[in-house]
Design a protein that fits this description.
By secondary structure, the chain is mostly helical. The chain has helices at residues 7-33, 48-77, 87-91, 98-104, 111-121, 128-139. Helix 4 packs parallel to helix 6 (128-139).
Amino acid sequence: MEREIGIDQLVAAMKAVDEAGRLFEEALAVYEARGVKRTDDPKVAGGAVQTLQGAEEMVLGTRRFLTELALLAGYATAGLEDRLGGRAATTRTGFTGLSGGGSRMARPLLDPTLRGLELLLAVELFEPAFKEEIEGVVRAEAATYPDPSTFRIPGPATSGTA
């Protein structure tokens, strides 16, 4: 039986994802050091709270995905790929946290964030659609989430008397 994803390809992806995660953690530490409070206005795309949350999402996404890659590598090494079902194919689609996290963050992105995203773009394992999501984060000139047009602004309170 031929492997869906080779061990060498998994190991290369693991190394890139691990290093990207480390770089995202470095950027997160910078944002955390700025003393952002969760009580600041969370509705501002690119604001301090959204940027911090976006950085956290990117770190968590890479760490979870690294665990998934390790699981795949372990099963593949043991010759048990058939027990993974469609997980190998799903792995090629990438992981959550990058486009959502990146769309929240203030621009310009910090250098460690950009370097981490560039590392992920070089991973051969990923499908083009995931790489396009990453490129979208890199190219964005401003944060795009949350979209202020989706907020409901309450009208003035009425007393109920006419």
